[in-house]
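Tokens in:
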């Protein structure tokens, strides 16, 4: 067999499909432990760059769905194929099923041409044959999907009826294939006090850009925004390229979903003097903490040097914000803070519409590593908060292991008392009103009632 020609890092993609397929080939090799990768669209005009991103999103958002359709139509398990072949078939099928504006002949011929160039010449024949069979499995558009095995739901609402093939008969397997979610994730969500179908279908939505806006009257007349159901939020409908300038125009605005806002919005000011944002990121929750605790100094922490530089720039001239590397805090000893917010790294299972690649790794081996990291951060938070102070633990996850079970572990192991937890379920279905869209989040408020905080059990 002729070896596949190398896709060298220095080579520039020649067109949108090439840019998308290079990323998808990396994902096919790394599945399920995926991380965000942007296609290289340098030098492309805006329309070609947008197409590259659309191809990548449609393929990645529906990878399991498309793999099932390709395997059924081609009568060959796609998982037995080499990574680039899997990527080509997934991307070609994504265009046939989910990108209406791409003609079938272009979707097939361009994918075949890429396979000939970047896999081997004879691979083009196999790609051509399988994609033509995939195209024959599509029937008419339906107004909705109602758990039927002869159709697949669409992100914009409605469904495509299948012919010649069907989804699995098992209800969990069918939902997983229909919504491109691993069976392990479907089984995990089935144990939540929530509608499983709604949780799964929510992950298909193309989420709106939602901005937190404490004074919505300032943007009432700006046609780049429309109302959100939350009184402190608005939906940004302007151009993507304009967003950064729009945020500079309205300094009080921040891109933040209502579920994320709820973590800090739900807190009460108890007269805290020192508040710590342990995983400050870009500083969105830091700004919330400044507003929520007007008499406090807020210490914004990060371990990433690029984010630290960004935080120092964002809060330059703000006397109530101190930016510090997280490792520096150990030297301050114990009990110097009144409240610590630990908005920890998590599986992102509550924001899968925004983090499409995360759906495949949520229940992978990465979960155990995340839980250990979360407990280490919780332990650090508990150590820096004095007697009577609070530790606020938060995630954007739906997984019990990352949410209530972590809060219960902290109560047992870190001399904390769990006072209340605040889970927020996602809202919004394919074809729904963007004003009603919401991610998921979790927050647990815990009190330090014993000066002895644990260094101990982090396992």
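Residues out:
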């Amino acid at each position: 067999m002729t070896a596949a020609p190398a896709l060298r890092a220095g080579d520039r993609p020649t067109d949108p499909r090439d840019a998308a397929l290079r990323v998808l080939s990396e994902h096919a090799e790394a599945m399920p432990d995926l991380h965000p990768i942007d296609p290289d669209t340098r030098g492309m005009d805006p329309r070609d760059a947008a197409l590259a991103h659309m191809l990548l999103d449609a393929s990645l958002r529906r990878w399991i769905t498309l793999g099932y359709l390709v395997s059924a139509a081609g009568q060959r398990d796609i998982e037995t194929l080499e990574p680039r072949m899997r990527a080509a078939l997934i991307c070609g099928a994504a265009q046939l099923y989910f990108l209406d504006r791409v003609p079938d002949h272009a979707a097939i011929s361009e994918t075949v041409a890429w396979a000939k160039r970047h896999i081997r010449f004879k691979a083009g024949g196999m790609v051509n044959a399988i994609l033509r069979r995939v195209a024959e499995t599509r029937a008419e558009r339906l107004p909705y999907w109602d758990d039927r095995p002869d159709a697949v739901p669409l992100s914009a609402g409605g469904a495509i009826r299948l012919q010649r093939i069907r989804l699995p008969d098992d209800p969990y397997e069918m939902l997983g294939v229909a919504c491109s979610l691993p069976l392990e994730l479907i089984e995990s969500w089935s144990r939540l006090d929530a509608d499983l179908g709604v949780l799964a279908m929510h992950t298909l939505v193309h989420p709106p850009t939602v901005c937190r806006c404490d004074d919505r009257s300032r943007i009432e007349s700006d046609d780049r925004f429309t109302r959100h159901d939350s009184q402190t939020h608005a939906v940004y409908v302007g151009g993507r390229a304009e967003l950064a300038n729009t945020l500079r125009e309205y300094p009080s605005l921040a891109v933040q979903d209502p579920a994320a806002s709820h973590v800090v919005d739900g807190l009460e000011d108890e007269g805290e003097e020192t508040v710590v944002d342990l995983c400050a990121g870009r500083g969105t929750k830091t700004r919330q903490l400044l507003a929520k605790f007007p008499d406090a100094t807020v210490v914004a922490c990060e371990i990433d040097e690029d984010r630290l530089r960004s935080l120092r720039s964002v809060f330059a001239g703000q006397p109530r914000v101190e930016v510090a590397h997280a490792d520096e805090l150990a030297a301050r000893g114990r009990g110097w803070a009144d409240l610590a917010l630990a908005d920890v790294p998590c599986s992102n299972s509550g924001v899968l519409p925004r983090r499409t690649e995360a759906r495949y790794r949520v229940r992978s081996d990465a979960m155990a590593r995340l839980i250990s990291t979360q407990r280490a951060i919780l332990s650090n938070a508990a150590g820096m908060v004095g007697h009577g102070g609070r530790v606020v633990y938060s995630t954007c996850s739906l997984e019990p292991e990352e949410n209530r079970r972590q809060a219960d572990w902290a109560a047992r192991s870190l001399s904390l008392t769990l006072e209340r937890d605040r889970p927020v379920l996602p809202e919004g279905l394919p074809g729904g009103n963007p004003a009603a869209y919401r991610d998921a989040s979790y927050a647990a408020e815990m009190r330090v009632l014993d000066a002895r905080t644990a260094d101990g059990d982090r396992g």
